[in-house]
User: Fold these one by one.
Assistant:
Number 1:
Amino acid sequence: MTTLAQRWRAHSTLSALAGFAVAAVLLFAVAPAVLSDFRLNLLAKFLCFAIVAVGIGLAWGRGGMLTLGQGVFFGIGAYIMAMHLQMADAARLGNDVPEFMEIAGIRELPSFWQPFASAPVALLGILVLPALVAAALGYGVFKRRVKGAYFAILSQALAAALAILLTGQQAIGGFTGLSDFRAFFGFKLSDPVNRRMLFFFAAATLLVVVALVRQLMHSRYGELLVAVRDQEERVRFLGYDPANVKIVAYVVAAIFAGIAGALFTPIVGIISPADIGVVPSIAFLIGVAIGGRTTLLGPVLGAIGVAWAQTALSEEFPSGWTYLQGVLFIVVVGFVPAGLAGLWPLLKGLLDNRFRRTAPTATVVVEKLPEPATEKVESR
């Protein structure tokens, strides 16, 4: 048994390495060669959504936590990056405050902006602040054993509250948000070469995030997370605290969302409350559900596919895409809970059953052998 287990692990590792190699070739060689600068920048935006989807796949697919508020952590990372880029642009121009503040009549930089003028502090904040918010929310919710629809509604309400709060804050752009970034850590964003660099950053980050989640899924913690999802009371009876297990997955998903938001800001060139509210949070979830929330690559492919379909179809059917998105979500949840990643095992099972029914059964003909002749012994 030990030898079989080792062989299985070795085969799984080799398959994973081969998959990462194929993904790296597609992202770093094929995509830049065949896509225009505009399409490549669009793909970089989709990769940011895929990073968020990987975290949702861990928290929802493995942990059973229906996270409807990932826009909160996405927005924290995005706004921190936007604030740093705005202050860096203002410093290069010799201004005390960013240009949009001068237009709004704000002559003094707000105190909560000042720490993010430093690049190390901004990068640290992108990682730490989403984690702290997620840890505080997770501790308050999971320790009280709030789960299911109640947790989903609470997380969605948090996303709505943050969007409303940002809309009324002129110090961070109000409902129009922050935009017009000129440089990214010293590299001009108007240069096509630097735009490609951002795509490579997003692609590398996605591969690292997928590798980390795969390691978590195949670790003892990953098994414990699945056990909490399926039999929470039994896990508690065995001496583990399910709340702590859930908090870790929720924090990891929040960190991934914050990183994705920080990359999204320079790639797209704008961040506003419309990008972090309830609708974007649901869109993240729909991509994960369609791709397959319990798999590793399903959320990635689902998020990219849904984002691409939204971009392509919304141009021709602006009012119809929202309805189509809702129909896709209902169909997947109602009829294909495993998502598109679960179609192949389903089709394979149907084909196997059909083959078993139609395959001719071999009949064994047993010839009756003649009975052995018995000698009649006459008694003298």
Number 2:
Amino acid sequence: MYFKKIIICFIASICMTYGNHKDSNINNDSNLQDKIDKFKQRYNTSINISIERMEKVKDSIQEVYERENKHTLKLEQNSIENLQIGVNDAKNQKEKEVALQKLNNSEYKTQLFLGLQIGSTFTAVLDNINVLPTINLKIGFQNFLGIASKNIGLKIYFDSFLASNVLSSLKNNPFVDFVDSSFSSTNINAEVMYEMPISSFLRFGFGGGFGVGYMTYKDAYWDKLNGFASNISLLFYFSFKDTHKLEIVAKTFFYHYGSYVTRKLDNVVQNPNNLYSSDFTQPINLSIGWVYVF
């Protein structure tokens, strides 16, 4: 009986020890999990903040990249000519080929040109009408406005007219007084052109313009009339391979302000007339010439 009580006490002691050990393990596991949860919570917050910052940086970089692509011109990809004719704006290969062809044809380029024209200038003071052989030199730039239209162009140029009847003196009787009549004008002009193709190498164009400059004139009535003048012009031309142009031009001059001196010839003295600059009829020049486009 006594032995039986000892065994029961031993078993009870073992159970209590095991129970206390188990409770201790449970407590330890619970503390470890709490530490793990706190660790995760702490570092997850830092990681999330870092990720958010990286996302913001990424968005900022993307925004800058898109803005640069939109507003920045890369010289190696966007030449002035390409931007002007829209090569980079072409939606397909065919449009790009057409744009490049126009570039090769110099249709939209700003080009220097030189011109030489000959013709006649018609002048008159009262009933004294002169038809003066004329030579005209011009230099300037032309540009076909590829952004606005395929056929509309603009020219800005200087020209200089020189007209005289001095060659007529060679046919005159040397014993008869020869009255030299001459006209000259130097101007800066602007003209708008419209050009249409006729064939692969030939085009027809026409246009009109306005100019201002300085003009001089003398004849039987004037010792000299000079001053500020304006002009309007009308032209027709044929263009060969975009390089050579055959032009027909009409230009009228309007005398505005300057000085003049009358020459008292016999017919003026006997029939006194008050000659004013308004008696000087607007000169008209008709000429034909050749223009070379570089």
